[in-house]
Every structure is written in structure tokens, then in C-alpha cells.
Specification:
The chain is α+β, with helices and mostly antiparallel strands. The chain has eight helices and seven strands.
Length: 294
């Protein structure tokens, strides 16, 4: 009876039920309907799987193309950076020889122009160094080990001895939790961030630089905070952009590559970088490293 009621609910089967089909045929008919339904569902599923498989294959091809393009771009940057060093050394070397050996034959304007050439070759050399660092940050194989960030930060600050001599800098490092990361790359991150803080606090009579930590369930979050020049948050979208600078060359020297390197390194660790600042009241740059990094 239940089976008959179900079939009667299907309008086009009502005539069969009333005049053509016998009672025993309804079960067979229902089975056929179920089989047809299952075949239809199975066909749909097979088609979805086929479509998904095709999309995955296309995605893999595009990923391979993208990886090849990135590798070529990084190799190109590495090669060009090395090739640029040769003529740069020649320009700087000959300019130095001109000043040292022919100074008595040059007037003041001639010496001044040669010094400008040497100064610009120095800036270009720094730019090449930064591009090479950026290239290495993306290519260098990572070796993950347990790091004492507190100790690492103190060692990095010590490397800036020449830049901090004669300055009144209150440098403090909180008791930071250890984390797993690549030592060489995180050393580069701290070098760039601490170096920036030293640079942007040089106009402060009493400079303060603090390396601290914020707790989070999934990540270890570290920060480098200073009371230096800071920056306008409305230009924040340029902060980590390659060759983007938020201060003029006359105010603070630099190539605009340092924070791009930081971002690339932290991204390779599966973390993220962000910052907060106020003009004249310093800046804080945060970076996170996943606690479950292997």
C-alpha cells in the first residue's frame, strides 16, 4: 500500500496504476526508477569529477609556467646585478684615480662633479646589494631550526656598532619565546628592521628601540618598535612595495628594498608582516611565524 501511494504521487504513473500495471509490477517499476535515478546521479558525478580533473590539470600547468617565470626573473635579476658591478667598479675606480692623481689639474667644480659620480656609484652599489638580497630571500633553501630570537636580536644590534656609536639609544629586548625558523633569513629580517629603527631615530636625542612580543594562539608575533620619524598611515599600502619609499633620499638614505625583503622572507615562513605608525612618534613593525612550522 505504501508503495502504491508513492507511485500515485507521480502524476504520469496514475494511468498505469489504474489500468495497465498489475500490483506486482510496481515494485519492479520503482526499482527501475531508482536505477535510472542512480545512473543519472552517477553520470552527473562522473562529469563533475572529469571537469574538476581538467581544471586541476590546467591549474598545474599554469603553476608550472608561473614557477618557471619566477625562476627566470630571479635568475635574470641575479645575473644583471652581478654584471652591473663590473662597470660600476670601473666608474668608481677611475673617478677615484682622477681625484687622487689629477686633483692639482682640476678646479673645485671638477672635483665636486667627480665626487658626485662616486657618491652615485655607491648608491647604485647599495641598490645592487639589496636586489641580490631580495633574490636570495626568494631562492635560498630554508633550514628550519629552533631560534632564540632575543639572543639573535641582541647580536644583530651589536653589528650596528659603528652606526650607534656616540648616540643615546635605549635598546631593550623583552623575554621573547623561542621559535622555529631559518636562522640566516630571520637574521636578515632583524637586520633590516633594527637597521631601519636605528636610521629613523637618528634625529631623536633620546632614541628608543624595543624588540617585543604579542601572544597569539597560532603564531609567534614579534615586533620592532621605535620612537623615530614614523610615517603617514595613509601611505601604508606602499610600505612593503619594492622600491617604494615613504621618506625622501635627502631625509633618510635607502633603496626601498629592505621591507620587501622582510615581507618575502616572512611569507616563505608562512607568516605575515604589518606595521603601525604616526608621523613624528615612531613606528612598530610586526612579523609573525607559525608555531607549527616544521
Amino acid at each position: 500500500m505504501i508503495l502504491s501511494s508513492v507511485l500515485l504521487a507521480i502524476p504520469f504513473l496514475e494511468s498505469f496504476y489504474n489500468g495497465v500495471l498489475q500490483a506486482g509490477d510496481y515494485f519492479i517499476l520503482l526499482l527501475l526508477l531508482l536505477v535510472v535515478l542512480m545512473v543519472a546521479l552517477l553520470t552527473e558525478r562522473v562529469e563533475k569529477v572529469r571537469t574538476l580533473k581538467n581544471l586541476n590539470n590546467e591549474l598545474k600547468k599554469e603553476a608550472i609556467k608561473l614557477e618557471d617565470a619566477n625562476n627566470e626573473l630571479e635568475a635574470f635579476a641575479y645575473s644583471v646585478s652581478h654584471d652591473l658591478r663590473v662597470p660600476l667598479r670601473a666608474i668608481d675606480g677611475f673617478s677615484r684615480i682622477m681625484i687622487e692623481d689629477y686633483e692639482d689639474k682640476l678646479d673645485d667644480e671638477g672635483v665636486r662633479l667627480l665626487n658626485i659620480i662616486r657618491e652615485n656609484t655607491k648608491k647604485m652599489g647599495q641598490l645592487i646589494d639589496d636586489i641580490l638580497l631580495l633574490s636570495r630571500a626568494g631562492r635560498q633553501e630554508m633550514t628550519i631550526s629552533k631560534l632564540d630570537i632575543s639572543s639573535l636580536a641582541k647580536n644583530v644590534y651589536g653589528e650596528f656598532n659603528q652606526d650607534t656609536q656616540g648616540r643615546n639609544i635605549d635598546f631593550t629586548v623583552e623575554d621573547l619565546p623561542k621559535t622555529k625558523a631559518d636562522r640566516a633569513l630571520i637574521t636578515q629580517v632583524l637586520t633590516n628592521l633594527i637597521g631601519n629603527s636605528i636610521k629613523f631615530t637618528r634625529e631623536k636625542e633620546n632614541a628608543k628601540i624595543n624588540i617585543g612580543f604579542k601572544s597569539d594562539n597560532e603564531d609567534n608575533i614579534y615586533y620592532v618598535k621605535d620612537n623615530g620619524a614614523g610615517f603617514d598611515m595613509k601611505y601604508y599600502d606602499k610600505l612593503f612595495g619594492l622600491f617604494q619609499r615613504l621618506h625622501s633620499q635627502e631625509e633618510f638614505e635607502g633603496t626601498g628594498v629592505g621591507l620587501s625583503i622582510v615581507q618575502r622572507i616572512i611569507s616563505r615562513h608562512g607568516g605575515r608582516v604589518w606595521g603601525e605608525s604616526e608621523v613624528g612618534n615612531g613606528a612598530t613593525i610586526y612579523f609573525s611565524i607559525p608555531k607549527n612550522l616544521k
